[in-house]
Amino acid sequence: MLFPAEDSGSLNASLLDAQQFILADVEEGDVEENGAAPPLAEDWRPSSAALSLVTNSESLMCDFAAATYSPIVDDGPLRWQRKGHRFAGIELVRGSSPHRQVDADGVPVEIGSRWRRHRSGWLVTVHVRLLAKSTGDDREDISRMLFQVDLDARAAGGGRVFEYDVSRTVDVDAEARELRIRYRNQKVYAVGHGMAAGWDLDESGECTRVFLDAVPHFVVPAVEQTLEEDFELSGTAMKSLDLAFLESIDRDPLAVTTALGEFVQSFATWADEQSKVALALGDGAREIAARSQTAAVRMRAGVELLGHPARTELRVAFALAMAAMRLQMRQAALARGEVDPIPSWRPFQLGFLLVGLASSTDDAHPDREIVDLIWFPTGGGKTEAYLALAAIVIFLRRLLHGQHGAGTAVITRYTLRLLTSQQFQRAASLICAMELLRGSDDRARGMVRFSIGLWVGNEATPRDRAGAKHSLERLYKARHPREANEFQIMECPWCATDLVPEDKDDTRRAYGARLVGNDVVFQCVNPECEFSRRELPMAVVDEVLYDEPPTFLLATVDKFARLQFNERAGRLLGLNTPFKQPSLVIQDELHLLSGPLGTTVAVFDAVIQLLLSRSGPPPKIVASTATIRASTDQVRGLYGREVALYPPAGLDGDTTFFARPVRSGEGRLYIGLMPQSVSQATALIAASAPLLEIPRHLIGLADVDERLDPYWTLVMYHNSLRELGRTGALLLDDINGRLETRSERLGKELRKVRAASVLELTSRRGPEELPNDLRQLGVSADNSSEATDVVLSSNMLSVGIDVQRLALMLMVGQPKTTAEYIQATSRVGRGRVNGIVVTLFRSNRARDRSHFETFRSYHDALYRGVEPTSVTPWSLSSRARSLAGALVTLLRQTFPLLAADSSAVNFDLDDASLRPGLNVLVERFLDLVARADGAEHTDVTVQVWELLREWDHEARKARDDGSPLRYERRPGDERALLKRFGQPGPGWLVGDSMRSVEPNVAVDVQEPLREARRAADPA
Ligand SMILES: [Zn+2]
Fold it and tell me: How many angstroms does the Cα of residue 569 sit away from the middle of ligand 1?
């Protein structure tokens, strides 16, 4: 929409009751009436729009179209008549006639251009400007406005339109240069001003036309894994993807390693081709290609190790891991309804196994310190890939070290509770498969029991046996047990049967949790299931985990803060146990470890790394991520280690050996809306209503089936809880009101948003509510009337929520970072239908405007736009928060003399039995700091010794007084070394969880009545 230009101060109060709002989707001659609040801010009412392009021509040929509306004067309510206008072949010539004027039914319009020298051609800005002046009366002005403005431009006289690269020639770092090379074919030909810009290309890739686009849209092709048919894999190499074949490696090593060798060769051939292409593209390109060569070398090393005559145990471990994965994948496929599934690897997964194999299974391998980072745009089976690696490591420990190889072998860390319980089910089913093998496979018989443990936040799971018993009683008594389930375990990981009944059941057998001795154990309630006759190998109670460290530990990063307070927590790192320390650490969703959380985690990780390598070489670290930029810096900041990205990038955009954009070009549809001159509330109502109507509108269209479900649930994504609250307030009255009006006008069946079917998904949800929320989100509108209508979500959603049926999203404003945008929008369209994302931009925000104006180019190279993430663990502010707690953890978990809670008093820098060990430990710690951030090394050194002297002083004073000095303050204690947030008095302030540093504070607003009652009754 373009508005008549304002004379200064001409806005008047009559605006407020004008209440006119005209939709752009009205057909010619149609009549539209509607109500909406008018705008107030002058810059919301643009009188012009423009686009810029680069050309070598001296003249441009433009077509212009728009519509005007005039009032229908009769006795009825105020209505408007549309009239379309079209002006073709408007020629703008540099110098002689850069401006032209046309008349759209009495409304004067200028089509003009501005020419500036650019290299050997011209940078031209073409504009459309409404020359009509505002009357000062909003209603009058409507007939002077232009709607559905359409302007395009072509180079005339045989000239060309060139790539618009005015602002993109500077590379801020080497990675930016590589990105520029990789996305060199994603060219931009125009930039919009006030509107988005689009362009047409002919078959040779030449730009033929640029145009203004009021509602830009772009389909980002799905990136899919390359499959065996994409390669010219020989028959032998094909066999290497078959798990049953790989399982025979211990019986016939040559056959299997030959097949694996051919698989690697197909990758190496691709890498060689990349290197050849890179020669022509220059320096950055050669570096990209070199990383593929390195990956080929590492894969080959993996295969050689498997074939090495002396590595019998490795082959058996590999075979057992393939057997376990095959069982697990088969079981999952059966649960999905597949008949007689034959599990096989995707090339991407097998490639990862081979890249990481040597350094994960050989403690002394030179690549041990490399962090292998799996990068795959969402989904893609990366979890299975690293579970397989974990299985190999676990079996190998048992084969090489017997009893000593038991204990916690693998630690998988997540950043969110919700994600953890979802992932738990998957990893648990692998452990179930390993347990079954222990009973059925001679190679695994006699091994110590395998188990999996969930170590998550305090509120989420019971902390000790007494708490667990209490939780169990509560579960049995609950009218709706699923809402009272504090064990985070919803279903049997093996057969997916619900372990908790929907309604209270008096037979205890209906519950999958029961008390055996003092322990709560889990057993499947489905009599057909293997695990109805034996315990499920799972534990969720902290105390139990410390007593019997689980083979496979899933934890939130937060939970490692427990190491400060509880010396027994160190047992999960293999400290003070008869077991070998963990061999593999898997960090999921590494990109979330940025900003304040990443910074705090990094301080503790330095300590955890030292603790994990106390009795030998460090564990292998594998990480996964969905969006990454500057991963080298991030991994160095977090771990002081080098990183290798897998799969290594190719030279063409998102295409790698293992993944490429789908050939059909299908994918997620992104649409941009930037309403002018209306309030955000009005815009939101106007944008939401048609989206909610989609399911009913689709039914009956050709080529569309009768299912309601695909776009039933509208996810409304918000960048702040405040905005989310505003939407919530509009939903039931205003949006439903709009739906009613539209239903009458369009003659379609009414869809209403039901209050009970609105789900809020934010950090305000309690941990026991989240599994139920996920379950609710899985309900299909085709099977139930209880399907969710609307999800009001905060950025909580962008983190690892995988609900296949979600496909429709309204983004309320552009998120702060591209990484979040990608993460959030990739939550829709993960299942059978492609996702649709509509972003509602706010025209009064500069960032939103800029995103709207460059909508197409941004989406054309989405991953290029990801901002570098940063962690600054050793900065002054971070040290002030975390260094004391980290030091206490390091010393307490290392020296038995300092382990118990009461032993803080034993710290003595003059103690000859302590000091030499302490010096070595501190030196190793500082060495790690130097590797992560050399600039802070000196300051950290000074501060570490200051803290140690302070502790020494406090302990000495306590010893002199004959008083205790504990780490943790107890009720009534005068002093302790540490104090938590909110505790007054002296002591080092330490966080209870890593999340204590997050700036978001949940405020629980209580009903006045409840508050008053509390005041009267302090109990
Ligand atoms: Zn079961």
Answer: 30
User: Minimal CA–CA distance to 901: which of 549, 535, 632, 566?
Assistant: 566
Q: Is the Cα torsion angle 637, 640, 642, 643 positive or negative in sign? A: negative
Separation of CA 498 and ligand 1 centre (Å)? 8
Structure tokens that stand for 956 in this block? 């000495």
pLDDT digits (tens, 9 = 90+) for 353-375: 999 999 999 989 999 999 999 98
Quick one: pLDDT at residue 350? 95
Whole-model pTM: value is 0.82
Cα atoms in the Cβ-side hemisphere of radius 13 Å centred on 677: 23
- Span from the CA of 397 to the centroid of ligand 1 (angstroms): 28
Residue 497 Cα to ligand 1 middle (Å): 6
Taking the centre of ligand 1 as the mean of its atom positions, its distance from the CA of residue 109, in whole angstroms, is 72
> Which of 203-212, 224-233, 319-328, 654-663 has the weakest average pLDDT?
224-233
Average per-residue pLDDT for the chain: 86
Å from CA of 325 to ligand 1 middle: 17
501 CA from centroid of ligand 1 (Å) = 14
Inter-CA distances, 264 with 79, 88, 270, 352, 370, Å: 70, 58, 10, 11, 20
Residue 38 has pLDDT above 50, yes or no: no
Q: 294 burial class (0-12, 13-18, 19+ CB within 10 angstroms)?
A: middle
453 Cα: distance to centroid of ligand 1 (angstroms) = 18
How far is it, in rounded angstroms, from Cα 318 to Cα 314?
Answer: 6
Separation of CA 538 and ligand 1 centre (Å): 13
Q: Which residues pair with 915 in a beta bridge?
A: none
Helix (H, G, I), strand (E, B) or coil at 503: coil
- How much distance in Å is there from the Cα of 523 to the middle of ligand 1? 8
Q: Which tens digits make up the pLDDT trace of 739-773?
A: 999 999 888 889 999 999 999 988 777 666 777 88
pLDDT digits (tens, 9 = 90+) for 293-348: 999 999 999 999 999 999 999 999 999 999 999 999 999 888 888 888 999 998 98
pLDDT category of residue 628 using cuts at 50, 70 and 90: low
CA 432 to centroid of ligand 1, rounded, Å: 10
Kindly give the distance from the C-alpha atom of residue 493 to the centroid of ligand 1, in angstroms, as a whole number: 7
Q: How far is the CA of 525 from the centre of ligand 1 (A)?
A: 7
Q: How far is the CA of 266 from the centre of ligand 1 (A)?
A: 41
The alpha carbon of 336 and the centre of ligand 1 are apart by a number of angstroms equal to 15
Percent of the chain at pLDDT exceeding 90: 56
